[in-house]
Amino acid sequence: MRHRVYGKHLGRDKDQRKGLFKGLVYSLFSLGTIATSEAKAKAIKGLVDRIINSAKENSKFPKPLVQSFVNDKFLQKRLTDDILPKLGSRSSGYTKIIRMGTRLGDQTMMVKMSLIGAEELKPIDKGSRVKSLRTRSQVRKTLRQQAVLESSKKEVEKEPTGAKPETKKPTKKTQTTKKTIRREGKKV
């Protein structure tokens, strides 16, 4: 029974749900529109209204609610400079939800959620922020590629031009047998 249980759980525990909401809110503010399931869109609709109202109260200094969900300074600036002026004197209803149809895999109703006035918003150009968005794995990958290129250049320089490359002779494989040693009547 669901007596006195508030909110949608979306099949997740508290931390997973908070992470999901952070990702959806971040994408909504950065892109202006997102495609998601109807349940997720309805779950974050009130949260987006609270974040925008909190940001409206004092647009210079973000409130803790705004900082907890929009912790990127670039996105906070976009929220105060681009998004808030387009919303005007509205007190709520900053998003609109348009049904797109069902998802093929599981017949879940998919919707397109967008901010009011998002038509004029341009998506964030990630090319200008490439350095800040790099992950450790991308940095390691480029370093490995550079090391491979340098080592191949050294090998090319060391190799004499007229010499034959050495070929390895195939070696015969020998079978190894497993020996068992008996100690006090037990196999080891």
Automatic annotation (TrEMBL):
Q: Does the keyword Ribonucleoprotein apply?
A: yes
Going by the UniProt record, its keywords in alphabetical order are:
Ribonucleoprotein, Ribosomal protein
Q: Which domain of life is it from?
A: Bacteria
GO CC term, one of those recorded: cytosolic large ribosomal subunit
One term of GO molecular function = structural constituent of ribosome
Show the InterPro entries listed in the entry: Ribosomal_bL17, Ribosomal_bL17_sf
Composition bias of kind Basic and acidic residues appears in 151-169
User: Could you tell me the Gene Ontology terms of the biological process aspect for this record?
Assistant: translation
One Pfam family assigned to this protein is Ribosomal_L17
Residues covered by region (Disordered)? 126-188
Similarity-based family: Belongs to the bacterial ribosomal protein bL17 family.
NCBIfam families from the UniProt entry: L17
Name of the protein described by the UniProt record: 50S ribosomal protein L17
